[in-house]
Amino acid sequence: MTRYATAKGLLGLGLAALLMGSTAVSAKTLVYCSEGSPENFTPALNTTGTSFDAARPVYNQLTEFARGSTTVVPGLAESWTFSDDAKVITFKLRKGVKFHATKDFKPSRDFNADDVLFSFNRQWKEDHPFFKVSGGKYDYFNDMDMPKLLKTIEKKDDYTVVMTLNEPNAPILANLAMDFASIHSQEYADFLVKQGKPELMDQIPVGTGPFSFVAYQKDAVIRFKANKDYFGQEKALIDDLVFAITPDPTARLAKLRKGECHHMAYPRPADLEEIKKDAALQMMQQPGLNIAYWSFNVTKPPFDKKEVRQAMNMAVDKAAIIRDVYLGAGAPAKNLIPPTIWSYNDTVKDYPFDQAKAKELLEKAGVKTPLEIDLWYMPVQRPYNPNGKRIAEMMQSDLAKLGINAKLVTYEWGEYRKRMQQGEHITGQLGWTGDNGDPDNFFFLRGCSAARPGGQNLSKWCNKEFDDRLKKAAAMSDNKERAKLYEEMQLIQKEDAPDMTIAHSIVYEPMRKEVTGYKMSPFNRHEFYGVDMK
Amino acid sequence: MIKFLLKRAALTLPTFFALMFVTFVAIRMVPGDPVEVRTGERGISPERLAQFRHELGLDQPIWKQFADYVWQLLHGDFGTSVVTNEKVLTEFFALFPATLELSAAAMLFAVLLGVPAGVIAAVKRGSWFDHTLMGAAVTGFSMPIFWWGLLLIMLVSERWGLTPVSGRIDLINYYFEPVTGFMLIDALKSDQPGAFWSALHHLILPMIVLGTVPLAVIARMTRSSMLEVLSEDYVRTAKAKGLSPFRVIGYHALRNALIPVVTIVGLQVGTLLAGAVLTETIFSWPGVGKWLIEAIGRRDYPALQGGILLISSMVIVVNLIIDVLYGAINPRIRHGR
Amino acid sequence: MAVDALAAQPAQPVPPGPLRAFWASFSENKGAVGGLVVLVIIALMAIFADVVSPYSPFEQFRDFTKLPPAWEDGGNWKFVLGTDALGRDTLTRLIYGARISLFIGVAVMATSVIVGVLLGLAASFLGGIVDTVIMRVMDLILSVPGLVLAILVVAVLGPSLTNTIVAVAIVYLPSYVRLVRASALGELGKDYVTASRVAGVGTMRLMFVTILPNCLAPLIVQAALGVSNAILEAAALGFLGLGAQPPTPEWGSMLADSREFIRSNPWIVTLPGLAILVTVVAINLMGDGLRDALDPKLKRS
């Protein structure tokens, strides 16, 4: 056996050398070093970017975000019209769109209205035959309030779908471009039911997208190949797309540098310098749609006093945190929203790092030192916060100089968030990543309704001036008027200091020089159609 | 013999049941739950949370959950992963070959290198080779392998470019469907030229990292047991009879010296699996060790429970086999009990 | 003849006391002595960390982050072994880390030896159902791979220094129980035990005063190795983020914390690992010497 193996291997080595040239020309393979395994391949079931990235090459939605932007463009729906009361939307579907074939399944018809109905009803109607398949947790469908929003979805003819809403909702078109609204094949579903394996729906994906699914080996690799029949303007320019699942960022970078992959997800901030120096690599960057903050629980003394909260803002050296923890992959935040979102108020002045002034404020508030507080830090890395623990250690050290002993506390991630929402902490870190670029998507985090126990307002801060404006702005349609209110709210928030806004991250994507045409997505998607290799 | 075997096997049954119960209870004592963990910053409404907990049976009293679990197990069902909705058994056996391949390679590496090195050290006792080897063995034995792995990747893969950084095969040039899950075998079967070498090339570094501790243990063990045997009367007699030293060492001495070594190899199985957790984490090796750690992080109760149960059963079975083998080699033990 | 031999005896040197004999045989092994010396140095540094180390382990020199050791380019002799990502002095943290790691090692060893001796003696003396239950539980612990078990225990109890010690102690408990039980069973059959029994010595006294001392030699050897294993296991837990919590300077978590700098600043990662390795090697060398000195059968071979 061994001898056989060796002989064959040696022979193979020679052959490989011979064949190397020809394979390189005939097939373009792009390897993307991804950060983890998807939970499955049905986006509606999932919540993580990792899972969405893995399913995205296969699917389309009715509407879509143009590659590399937040602009909504036609997808599987060619066009749409709103009724006068804006409650009824009529979608005209694209004709001649082919679903992918798998080893067993060969589609007999083109995409039509049945597929649209299937995709939404599966998430919506509890009596739908696929509702319970694969656990049936449709988090995004529910998070986006779709069950409340939707009244009916009807098929008018094979290429016309009518969606009726309970109330007008302008962002609906953007919502339909999100991953959870991906369109699946009704025919494939029927086929699987006949085979008695409905769960394969979520494991062997069939869609209309620029790539078709080939194979998946858990924790190792996902393979796609270009869909030659793709309807879109921007097609797959490479032949094979491979996700090499590599959870360790150091290993991802090493693979990228050695040419074992061409593009990598989420580099470590510590490695950015090295990447910039490598002549074989290029790197793109853009500000992230997020915020990391440090909340003060205003229901717990002495943080009920404004002076104390302001003192905290002055006591911590934010610049040092940006320098030593974000290592250049972050910008100091003075507002809750990042500067790329409209209504950002640049006239807001951040608190300076001034420990003497902080001490004065504490004395004024009658705080006696040593003061014992707790400081909760996140047990996990998040897009907005590369290392909660290190930030906490720096804060602890800064606070110690004022005679404040901060005890570092953390819990398992789900537990952590739940306890903080209940208001068990005195001070603690968290953050937020935006979904749709609307300011309300951030400011609700400091609204009164979110300040209830269990709500997302971790400062439990309910300021009437702030909250009135928040409610008013949400009901208005004129973005200019809304912007004015949001700008005022940013001033109120900074003055009353329910939190310390730490940073907005900067997202980097390194790739090899031979990769061309890649566009960074503001939603942090990793998309490879329209991408070529030199 | 069969009676002995049955008796030993019967003894492991209560262990197995206790294991099932203890892990079941322990896992449910871990703070956090699988539904909460996956929701992130966004959270989940209490109604939906309650609904999912109900569907997963998490709202039942724990004894009821346990009874259901045992009932399932008796039907050969290890449950379904909360995260991926795949059968735990399917997931486990999709990943297990990778762990087995790595562990077997590491063990082979340790034995093939450790036994000859130990023999030479014993024969040339006190020589520089002996001293160097024993020094190296203590170091290997003391190695924090997570650090060793990082160090080797940094030097061997990155600085010197000798081995790939991680993964099991070159993904750009080779592709074939997994048949056995053992990359080396699949690569051979695939008829893709060079695939086998690529797979082997990817295996080298993780194999060395995982094999370091067993290698040190085996080398030390072989040396000391060889020394003991060499001083026995029958070896001296053989020498005195004028048999060639090669024959004395290779045939008479080694055969007897290997008995304790075989036991040690068996005992290292548990160590190997524990080491695999770290090695797989460092090398992004798609095996069950890494999978278990991730299951803890995601509070994937069924996966965690099933994984621990399956791995421990294997350890129990391997120990049983060793007991039996040992009894076969050394009849005194069998009759002594 | 016999008389002659007896008469000649006074001329021979007095046989050395047991301690002296032990030391004589221990010091024959150069590796063991070397290990002992290194270990004593590390232990002294750990005990007098407050005096020996240049700074506080928590003091952050924000203007001097991620310095390499002084002899490297860009090093600074103020920070001999460099600084970590937050500008804390690496040498200082390593010295304090020795305190933590040795403490973990000794605490784990002490816990598992004490519990192990009690359970082992109970199993061997009481026999029957007690014996069966104890040994089955030990089998149970042994059947779960050590690190996985430790991780599970820490996950249940929550990560902290104390829980690390508990988790690792549980993992190593079975080896002590088995060892004590086996050697106690071996001793129980011997004449002197029967003699003591006949003389009416109580069970407790028999267990702890008569038999235990005779099982000590293998126990001491095992305990020495147990310290080094515990340090390794605790470091592995720290590496997986489940060990001592920040800002405690534990070696494993120092390594895990700075893992991201393995490419840009390899020193920060290399040094804690090296500290673990050196300490564990020293303990193991010493343990080998102990074994050779305490186990005459091996010594002569």
From TrEMBL, chain A:
Annotated Gene Ontology cellular component terms: ATP-binding cassette (ABC) transporter complex; outer membrane-bounded periplasmic space
Localization, UniProt: Periplasm
Keyword Signal: yes
Signal peptide (residue range): 1-27
PROSITE patterns in alphabetical order: SBP_BACTERIAL_5 (PS01040)
GO MF terms held by the record: peptide transmembrane transporter activity
Origin superkingdom: Bacteria
Coarse class of the protein's main subcellular location: periplasm
Keyword Cytoplasm: no
Gene3D superfamilies found in the cross-reference section: Dipeptide-binding Protein, Domain 1, Dipeptide-binding Protein, Domain 3, Periplasmic binding protein-like II
Domain Solute-binding protein family: 71-444
Keyword entries, A-Z: Signal
Biological process according to GO: dipeptide transport
Family the UniProt entry places it in: Belongs to the bacterial solute-binding protein 5 family.
Protein name: ABC transporter substrate-binding protein
Source organism of the structure: Alsobacter metallidurans
TrEMBL record, chain B:
Keywords: Cell membrane, Membrane, Transmembrane, Transmembrane helix, Transport
Protein name: Peptide ABC transporter permease
Annotated ranges, domain ABC transmembrane type-1: 96-326
Topology class, membrane: Multi-pass membrane protein
Organism: Alsobacter metallidurans
Matching CDD domains: TM_PBP2 (cd06261)
Annotated TM spans: 9-30, 102-123, 135-156, 199-219, 257-283, 303-329
Predominant place of localization: membrane
Domain of life: Bacteria
Single Gene Ontology MF annotation: dipeptide transmembrane transporter activity
From TrEMBL, chain C:
Keywords for this protein: Cell membrane, Membrane, Peptide transport, Protein transport, Transmembrane, Transmembrane helix, Transport
Keyword hit for Thylakoid: no
TM spans (from-to): 32-52, 102-127, 147-173, 267-287
InterPro entries reported for this sequence: BP-dependent_transpt_permease, MetI-like, MetI-like_sf, OppC_N
GO function terms (MF aspect): dipeptide transmembrane transporter activity
Topological relation to the membrane, as annotated: Multi-pass membrane protein
A single GO cellular-component term on record: plasma membrane
Main location: membrane
Example of a GO biological process term: protein transport
Membrane found in the keyword field: yes
Compartment annotation: Cell membrane
Domain ABC transmembrane type-1 per the UniProt entry, residue ranges: 98-287
Highest taxon, organism lineage: Bacteria
Family as reported in the entry's similarity comment: Belongs to the binding-protein-dependent transport system permease family.
Protein name: Dipeptide ABC transporter permease DppC
